[in-house]
Every structure is written in structure tokens, then in C-alpha cells.
Amino acid sequence: MNLRELSKLLDSKIHCCEESLENEISYVCAGDLMSDILMFSEPNALLVTGLVNIQVIRTAEMLDIAAVIFIRGKNPTDEMLDLSRIKSIPLLTTDHTFYLTCGLLYEAGLKNVPMKTAKNEIKY
Amino acid sequence: MEKQKKPVTKDIKHEYSIKGMDFVAAGEASSNIKHTLQLIGFAPAVIRRAAIAAYEAEMNIVIHAWEGVLITSISPERIEIIAADTGPGIPDIDQAMKEGYSTAPDHIREMGFGAGMGLPNIRNVSDEFTLDSSLGRGTTLTVVIYPTA
Ligand SMILES: Nc1ncnc2c1ncn2[C@@H]1O[C@H](COP(=O)(O)OP(=O)(O)OP(=O)(O)O)[C@@H](O)[C@H]1O
Ligand SMILES: [Mg+2]
Predict the structure, then answer these.
(1) In whole angstroms, what is the distance from residue B77 CA to residue B8 CA?
(2) The CATH number fitting domain A3-123, selected from 3.30.420.10, 3.40.1390.20, 3.30.360.10, 1.10.10.10
(3) pTM of the model
(4) What ipTM, to 2 d.p.?
(5) Does domain B12-145 match CATH 3.30.310.50?
(6) Per-residue pLDDT of chain A (124 residues; tens, 9 = 90+)
(7) Is A38 within 8 Å of B116 when comparing Cβ atoms?
(8) CB within 8 Å: B44 and A64
(9) What number does the ligand 1 atom closest to the CA of B103 have?
(10) Could you say which of A36, A39, A53 has the minimum Cβ distance to residue B124?
(11) CA dist., res. B57 & res. B50, Å (int)
């Protein structure tokens, strides 16, 4: 699904990088602790988080995250928007709870970012 | 007399200084490292591995140490990242390497760190991983990634 469809699904507002609305989202990762996110490394992934600070954008940048969505109507700060524009990372917000957001995405067929275990096997 | 040729592949070396508890600048060094790797033209998956290692190491200096440096040494065959700090050091490295082990206080967790996954994440993305620490003095982490491996 592309970002435009995803944004409709979650009744979300897009705060920057509208030019990326056609970008494809294939996977989702979610969490409030950044190192729980930094174990995933696939392009075309959406990051769902309740954490709102500049390090979320840094984390997204390191992982080539395709877009970030903040739950429960938490708005990104100007500082975050500035950095996101530079790095071309779309930022969205939804009023839904964390659980509902993830549930709707899962129901729509989006899966967890595939992850390699220490033994290099792919785990979903 | 034949002019001496410069070696064709020379490591590109950079050094970035990191300040403890500076959460505004935190991540800038890793961002610069990522940018350099992109300019050189490494594959995106390789760049992500190096960026994860650099960023987790940078955040560990910001959160757990007093000050430090990230030193990168890059050639087409080898990406080396050294994170060296002066700080409290790590009393038990085996324990620090355990998934979920963290000494980060609540105010750090509120900023999104302290999952105890940083060092395990770094080890997972690196081909060579060395962690040395001396109590009350500091910690040195060396990561090597072979882009073709
Ligand atoms: N540079 C360092 N200096 C001193 N102690 C460190 C350093 N790096 C890591 N540690 C110690 O090792 C522990 C585990 O580090 P690790 O990076 O795995 O987790 P964390 O930093 O606590 O949380 P996370 O990285 O998941 O945000 C830390 O909580 C800290 O006690
Ligand atoms: Mg850490």
C-alpha cells in the first residue's frame, strides 16, 4: 500500500514531505524505545511510535524508514519537521491509540519488518 | 627516476567528537558518517548496517560516558568505526552485552533509550566487534564491516 492509502486508513494528517505520498509501504515496525527499532533494517518500512523527539527522526534516518506516524495525536515539533524535510522523511499523526493503529495496519496486510536472528535466519 | 605512485585506495579517515548528555547534537556524527558512505556509493544495506552501529555507539557515548570520539576509516573493502570515550567504563562486559540489560535511568527511557539493545544491535550488524573497557577511565568499541561479505 502506498502512503496515501495508509494515511486514509488511519485518518491521519501528513505534516511534511507530501511529495512522497506515492511511496510504497511494505512493512511496519513499532515502539517507543529506539533500540527496539534499530534492530530492523529494511527499506519501505513505516515506523509507528508514541515517542516525540528529534531522536525518532535520527533513528528513521539511519534505517531509511519510509515514513513515521505518531499515535494519539502527538504532533512533531518544528525542529523535528525541519530535520525530516532535509532527510525527506514524511511525518504523519493519527488520533488512534497505539494498539488500534497497529491493528488496522496488520488487518490491511502489512507485516512486521523481516529480521535476521544472530544465526542469520530470517524471522518475521 | 620513476615518480612514486600514490596508492590507489587510501583509507578515508574522519573523526567526530561527541559530548556526553548533549541530546541536541546527538546523532549528527552518525548522520555525517552515513552521508560519507552514500557519497562513496556503498550499497544501501551496507550503509544501514554501518549507520546502526555508528548511531548506537554515538548514543552510548552521549548517554553513558562523559565525552568521546567516533573515528571512521573507510576503504571500498572495509568500513571501520571506532567509538572511544572517557567515562565510567563498563564493569561487566558480558552482562552489558545481554539483550535487555541497561543501567539507563527513567529520564533516559523517557527519551527513547535504555532498551538494553544497543550493544546487541551493534554486534548483529558487524563482521568484527571488539569492546574494551577500563573502570573509571573509559570504553573503546571497534566495529568492522566488510561491504562485500
Ligand atoms: N560507552 C559506555 N560507557 C559506559 N557504559 C556503557 C557504555 N556503553 C554501554 N554501557 C553500559 O552497557 C549497558 C548496555 O548498553 P546498550 O547500548 O546495550 O543498552 P542501553 O544503552 O542501556 O540502551 P539502548 O542502547 O537500548 O538504548 C548500558 O546500560 C551501560 O550500563
Ligand atoms: Mg545503548
Answers:
(1) 13
(2) 3.40.1390.20
(3) 0.95
(4) 0.93
(5) no
(6) 999 999 999 999 999 999 999 999 999 999 999 999 999 889 999 999 999 999 999 999 999 999 999 999 999 999 999 999 999 999 999 999 999 999 999 999 999 998 765 445 665 5
(7) no
(8) yes
(9) 29
(10) A39
(11) 11
